[in-house]
Backbone:
């Protein structure tokens, strides 16, 4: 018999980046092809303009600088509402997950907010606060806070009691316990809430701008809708969808992957 140790298992080959992106690119190409075919056989290009016409409108908006101003304005509202919703919803959900009494008292309010239509919240904020930035951002955050709270409540209930006991025995301070014990366990849930939250928030921000703001992508959609300019409506929608997809691919998805690795390393 040979005394050689068995060979170490080899790590699975890592897929190249282009292979991971290929299915999405093929799907996008198919959608564009279907769009072009429907526009070609349509009898009214004003109702369904071709992709090339929409891209021409988009290029004109980008060259004039109008695209960047309004997208920047909308992104600022998205980020402000996102920050408020994540902080308030995360704190509320963690509190309800860790305290049975808080969960009993606050759960009815949470259910009401979850089932209250977003349009009602937006209209009420505009009526009660006024047509201003505070009302716009608050109405968006109020629609997202209960969703974040529900996700973080369930994650809070699943926190390991053994780790809590260990932190108590070693006399860890509250901030140290939050950083080294609680957050590593909550990281995947926080990242999932962030990814789902940003997708919901930017859609509600467009509705807020459509109804009561004088700038932003939603305002431009309202203006071109009033003029029945479908090509520019699609150009603004396409531009903002691309921006949000880039944010998801370049920021939120890597963050979620790193959060999962952080939890595995801390376990």
Residues:
């Amino acid at each position: 018999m040979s005394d050689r140790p068995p060979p170490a298992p080899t790590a699975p080959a890592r897929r190249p980046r282009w292979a991971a992106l290929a299915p999405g690119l093929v799907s996008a190409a198919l959608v564009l092809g279907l769009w072009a075919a429907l526009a070609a056989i349509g009898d009214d290009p004003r109702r369904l303009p071709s992709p090339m016409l929409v891209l021409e409108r988009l290029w004109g908006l980008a060259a004039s600088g109008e695209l960047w101003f309004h997208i920047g304005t909308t992104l600022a509202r998205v980020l402000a509402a996102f920050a408020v919703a994540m902080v308030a919803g995360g704190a509320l959900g963690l509190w309800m997950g860790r305290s049975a009494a808080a969960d009993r008292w606050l759960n009815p309010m949470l259910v009401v907010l979850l089932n209250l239509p977003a349009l009602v919240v937006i209209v009420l904020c505009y009526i009660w606060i006024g047509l201003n930035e505070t009302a716009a951002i608050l109405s968006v955050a109020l629609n997202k806070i209960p969703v974040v709270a529900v996700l973080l409540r369930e994650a809070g209930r699943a926190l390991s009691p053994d780790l809590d006991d260990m932190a108590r025995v070693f006399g860890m301070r509250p901030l140290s316990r939050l950083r080294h014990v609680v957050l590593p366990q909550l990281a995947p849930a926080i990242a999932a809430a962030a990814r789902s939250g940003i997708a919901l928030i930017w859609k509600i921000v467009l509705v807020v701008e459509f109804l009561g703001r004088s700038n932003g992508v939603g305002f431009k959609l309202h203006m071109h809708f009033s003029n029945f300019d479908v090509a520019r409506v699609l150009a603004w929608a396409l531009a903002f969808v691309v921006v949000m997809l880039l944010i998801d691919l370049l920021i939120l998805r890597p963050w979620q992957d790193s959060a999962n690795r952080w939890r595995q390393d801390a376990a």
